[in-house]
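Hypothesis: this fold can be encoded by more than one sequence.
Test: take the structure tokens below, design a sequence, compare later.
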């Protein structure tokens, strides 16, 4: 149960963490071993598994293959309560703080309790904040919520702080997978200054410079999904 402790120490030691997000909908079991070996050659420190619309079908098999082929911690990043597997090491237990849809604020969480109780997953309560990114993203469509205005820095950092005060252990600033525009750097910086818990940033980050910029702005962890999915040699 030390995934969160490592994230916390990363904040205090100013270490930067990188997660590669695998969407089970876009990954065949046959490809998974090779993908895991690509991840091992990259600077990734964590593997996230999840997607907005995946129904959980081959999740356990997929995670088993990743586990056999990579030493990195595997965290579930679930789009709904079907995406839970005891095979992973932990779960980002998400609460969509930017939206006002009760399904994603509490309903899915309640539904997942009986499943979670049967696992040993490290459960990390995460305030998830969707930021407007230039066009409608899958999270927006599936959650039927509006992202927060990318110009309203104060409201976003206030939302993040409320998440911390509620008891979330992480804040995830999300532009949405494949976003045209990533979360603005100034916004990352404002949120990082206002909260004292680790900050994850993802969505639309697709270059080495964009990763470095997000770290320099204050992200503890950057998440890369689409860029790695489209170019498995991205980190070369
Ligand atoms: C999505 O933040 C992640 O939830 C990753 O986004 O696919 O755009 O890298 P990308």
């Amino acid at each position: 149960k030390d995934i969160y402790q490592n994230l916390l120490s990363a904040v205090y030691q100013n270490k930067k963490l990188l997660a590669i997000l695998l969407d089970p909908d876009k990954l065949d079991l046959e490809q998974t071993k090779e993908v895991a070996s690509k991840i091992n050659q990259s600077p990734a420190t964590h593997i996230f598994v999840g997607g907005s619309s995946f129904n959980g079908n081959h999740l356990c098999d997929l995670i088993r293959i990743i586990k056999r082929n990579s030493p990195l911690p595997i965290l579930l990043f679930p789009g709904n309560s079907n995406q839970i597997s005891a095979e992973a090491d932990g779960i980002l237990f998400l609460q969509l703080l930017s939206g006002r849809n009760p399904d994603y604020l509490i309903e899915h969480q309640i539904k997942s309790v009986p499943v979670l109780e049967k696992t040993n997953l490290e459960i990390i309560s995460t305030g998830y904040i969707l930021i407007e990114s230039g066009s409608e993203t899958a999270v927006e469509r599936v959650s039927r919520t509006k992202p927060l205005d990318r110009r309203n820095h104060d409201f976003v950092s206030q939302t993040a702080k409320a998440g911390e005060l509620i008891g979330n252990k992480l804040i995830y600033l999300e532009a949405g997978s494949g976003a045209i525009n990533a979360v603005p750097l100034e916004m990352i910086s404002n949120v990082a200054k206002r909260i004292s818990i680790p900050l994850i940033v993802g969505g639309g980050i697709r270059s080495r410079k964009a990763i470095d910029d997000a770290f320099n702005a204050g992200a503890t962890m950057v998440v890369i999904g689409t860029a790695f999915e489209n170019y498995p040699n991205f980190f070369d």
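The two ends are 32 Å apart (CA to CA). The longest strand covers residues 122-130.
Hypothesis status: open.
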